[in-house]
Amino acid sequence: MDVKLVMHVPGASGYHRDESLGFPIHYIAGPSRLRAATFFYFDRRRIAKFVRRLDPDIIHAHGTEDSFVIAAQAVGRPYVVTAQGMFSQINHVMPPRLASRARVVEFVERRSLARAKHIIAKSDYVADWIRLTYPHLAIHRIPNTFDPRIMEVPLDGQRQPSSLAFVGNIDPRKGLHLLAEALKNQPLATRHSPLVTLHIFGNRGSGASDYEKSTINSLRSIIGDRLALHGVVPAADLPRHVAACELLVAPSIEEMFGNQVIEALLVGTWPVVSSGTAMEENVRKIGAGTLFKNGNASDLARGILDAQDKIKAWNREETRLRVDQWLGPSKVASLHLSLYCKILDEG
């Protein structure tokens, strides 16, 4: 495949091209304000115009958020969509305000997918929603892969005792408030240590939302200096940080796949995940990880305690092999190539 990656960067000062990975990545600039207010009309025109000059045989729109799908449709070439984050599903689980960006994105998503034909679902959780909401779409089940450099992280490295990692944006959908409630109501005086240390990767600091500020302040009042805030860590460095923790806690209310869970399993960090999400599918398929009842803080506390017992006899090498066999880059790439050929054969 002759791959060209186009990244739209709202707020950037100008165009940039990078070929350090062996294929061109085009970073194209756009305004950062009033994008949703215009239903991404100008983003669609800008991206489609640029992609049209690249003269692709097929376009892969990665996600229905923003203008990715409508830009792909505007180019006028064969295309496929990945259900990276279905806003119709997210808004159903966690309804936003009537006048909000999330509502605009859902409107654009529904209009664009009404015209689409092929969509990639990363989990049964997403595929089931697509069948219900967009029954005309041809669903292709292709999971996410992972950065192969993660396999270089040693599984026998030193881990901080009774340490928890939380990875992701701090917003209500990711459920960090549930972890704060679990720590407050049951201090988790574990079987190994009376102290729990929480490492957060993804906090915004000075640019934090009101939700992030209040949740961080709540956690700080509960566990004090045992709260470690790492900010936004580069993706290439994150697995080594997570590998230094015993458990990953992923209390998301809604989750389409859960990359952080797969990466944690690859580096030997046991995940504790919420039920009723795609993360549940992942831990059941791999056979490693602890489930707790979605939205239930007391059950989350129970899950953390149970997980600390389960890691004693955990065969990390066997788990890494299972993940690689299921989600290895070469396997996922071949699935994509087969789909591209199928779509091109259809004309």
Labels describing this entry:
6-stranded parallel sheet; 347 residues; 2 domains; alpha/beta; 4-stranded parallel sheet; globular; Rossmann fold
What does this structure look like?
This protein is of the alpha/beta class. It has 2 domains: 5-145 and 329-345, Glycogen Phosphorylase B (Rossmann fold, 3-Layer(aba) Sandwich), CATH 3.40.50.2000; 148-326, Glycogen Phosphorylase B (Rossmann fold), CATH 3.40.50. It has 13 helices and 13 strands. It has helices spanning 41-54, 68-75, 87-93, 101-113, 124-133, 176-185, 210-223, 238-243, 259-266, 278-286, 297-310, 316-327, 329-345; strands spanning 5-10, 16-18, 25-30, 59-62, 79-82, 118-121, 138-141, 160-167, 197-201, 227-229, 245-250, 270-274, 290-292. Strands 10-9-8-11-12-13 form a 6-stranded parallel sheet, with helices on both faces. Helix 6 links the parallel strand 8 and strand 9 (197-201). Helix 1 (41-54) packs across helix 2, helix 6 packs across helix 11 and helix 12 runs parallel beside helix 13. It is globular, with a radius of gyration of 21 Å. Residues 189-193 have low confidence and may be disordered.
